[in-house]
Write a structure and sequence with these properties.
Layout: E1 2-5, H1 11-22, H2 29-37, E2 41-46, E3 52-60, E4 65-73, H3 82-94, E5 98-104, H4 108-115, E6 120-129, E7 134-141
Parallel strand pairs: 4-5
Antiparallel strand pairs: 1-2, 2-3, 3-4, 5-7, 6-7
Amino acid sequence: MRITRFRWWHIAEVLPIEEDLFGSEKWSAAMFWNELAQRNFYLVAEDEGGKVAGYAGLSVVDQDESWVQNIAVSRDAQRRGTGRQLLEALLAEAGGRKVLLEVAVDNAPAQRLYAGYDFEPVGIRRGYYQPSNTDALVMMRSA
């Protein structure tokens, strides 16, 4: 797996992954364009053939805080360490800042991944994911 910067041409490749993993709660192309326009830190994981297998983004708020915007790995590339590689790259970019993220309360595998990197639950956002009205667990890793 090769981790590289997410560029505008990757948007078309990540949209099918979004659709498959998140269905009606998927991000649109416009949302990814907006993230890139704001110069947020985004990466893609490409397999040996150059196909996008996953992606992740980080928003640096200020010198003390950053937020993981998303981490997604295609179903056929899951459980191979791709999510870990992406998360580690985001944490390296965050440097000494505290890092926060939201994860669906019913996504136990992702919560275990984050807990393995010292993220701890700090709150709940009721009805955060729409249209399913699923709650989000807010997790934080201290600086």
